[in-house]
Amino acid sequence: MPIETIENTWITLADGRRLAARLWLPDAGPAPAILEYLPYRKRDGTAARDETTHTVFAEASYACIRVDIAGTGDSEGQFDDEYSEQELRDGEEVLAWIAAQDWCDGNVGMIGISWGGFNGLQLAFRQPPALKAVVSVASTVDRYADDIHFMGGCLLSDNMNWGSQMFAYLTRPADPDLRADWREDWLARLQNIPFSAAHWLRHQTRDSYWRHGSACEDWSAIQVPVLAITGWADAYVNAPPALAANLRAPNKAVIGPWEHRYPHISKLDPADFHSEVIGWFDRWLKGQENGAEDLPAYRTYMQEHFDPTPRNGPRQGRWIAEASWPSPYVNEQVWHLVSGGFSQNPSCDSIAVASPCHLGMQSGYFCAGMRIDNELAGDQSSDDTLSACFDSAPLDAPLELLGRAKLKFQFSVDKPVAQLVARLCDVSPDGVSQRISYRSLNLCHYLSHETPQALQPGEIYEAEIALNECAHRLREGHMLRLALSTSYWPIVWPAPQPAEVTLYLQDCALQLPVREVTHEIQASEPGPAQAFPVLAAEQLRPPSAQSERSVTDDGQVVLETFDDYGKTRDPYHDLIVGSDVRMHYSIHPDDPTTACFETAWNFTFERADWQVAIATECRMTCDAQNFYLYRKLRATEGADETEALTKEWFETVPRGLL
């Protein structure tokens, strides 16, 4: 179907601010609309990806619209925070505006991955009249438990990493071709960028800040149909099964062998994302009786052992389906921990867990799909040797796990703040260890994420770790390994002092979600990715990436990465954009206060005689009492790099119980 693309139009909000939008309109009359609402810049940031999605949806008779959140891209106003009240209130106005346009029939759906997946659920939670269906990819239903800031009450280093990335993103100017006031607006943006990483870090417990925007606060509030999708290489694996288990509105969950990308552009195993989306919206926006509601509640890719490597590559496994979720065909098996292994009966032994701070160097990038390559978890064997491991005997029959394994344990500590990280691994007969799932717990949160408390050394406590969702088949002859550690760098920021955790095995057990393999239903899995349009951008500098590990003379273990995202010219408006990022992680195995994260982003923008360059630097370090956060930007104009603004920020945040 012929479509019309409108590069920019303005949505004027009630307070006079204008949000910038790009439109893809089908040739035939009023149509249902699909909104994607992001801070990542429609003009350049997501332009290549948008070409592969909204063009296809428009050809399927949907009016598609990509809107820049206030204070980002070409939109007016000031950005304040992720998923803020301003963002969601503006989103409600945008939905109402779309529904009132003559090219829309009044029915609007939302789609998005990560940020757009989050605010799709969050806006559905608010029940705006025009919103009739959602496709949410790689999102969360609990902003404290399952986002990029904290895991099990432990601080994720990606809180600073992501804050640094958003800092760099927010420095980018509006396009002068669209905004005559671009320079005034740009300087205001640069002066007023929120120090998000510090702000998030101050909210160390599950308080009202994190409850805002968390769908799990009231499952009944979401009353429109939701299709939830993610991939096993992604960080956001817990939301689709949680939605399938708790939503009352029509919903389906799909988890494939993908990273943090839309499935059709996955670098692991690209799949037909378009048909899934169009089928869902055809049912709930167009009213077509296509059987979307009759699909299995949960379709997923049951992975098997493959040679784990940080490099992108295909997975091993097969698609399965469960008609309902939770499934009656998944039952709990209890494996009691004994020294070095498992038993049907408890043991009276105890075991101490104390790990070097650099354990976790095979963990991979927290959210694979954000870098160019070298970001997946590798062979866990080297990390396993530094952990307390519990191994099964070689399996005499295959074992399928589907759901969240739980570790229940009794423990004491020798420090008031300590962590425990649990990894579940599939160990092949030749000793290659593949991570199936993992999860960390700040032991101060053993009772509550709302009201943690310092631990009393020597006192005995009980706790539980529900590992992240998984779907994994262990072959006959393989071993199941539970690896426990008190550190997991660089994913988890370490506790302030080296700690020893003593486990009392009498009350330690692994509860496994074991799936019966005697039943199988039609999986209706996504097929291979179909052909889709690609933005015909002119490549002026090719992308490249590298990662390097080293040990300094004083024993610091260092991971350094570089991603050059290249430089391209957009074919529609001739904007030339280049970017790259360096990251540095370092820590001494014996001293958690040596943990350091540094990053540097560079952006360049140019067209004809207009040029802008922005360089940002960020660093986070710590001692036993505080976190120290630093950031700097330098923005220049013109070929002679005339300085527009240079500014530095310093923040000190008390550690509390982190």
From TrEMBL:
Residues 278-534 form the Xaa-Pro dipeptidyl-peptidase C-terminal domain. Transmembrane segments: none annotated. InterPro entries: AB_hydrolase_fold, CocE/Ser_esterase, Galactose-bd-like_sf, Xaa-Pro-like_dom, Xaa-Pro_dipept_C, Xaa-Pro_dipeptidyl-ppase/CocE. Keywords: Hydrolase. Gene3D superfamilies: alpha-amino acid ester hydrolase ( Helical cap domain), alpha/beta hydrolase, Galactose-binding domain-like. One of its GO terms (molecular function) is hydrolase activity. The keyword Cytoplasm does not apply. This is CocE/NonD family hydrolase.
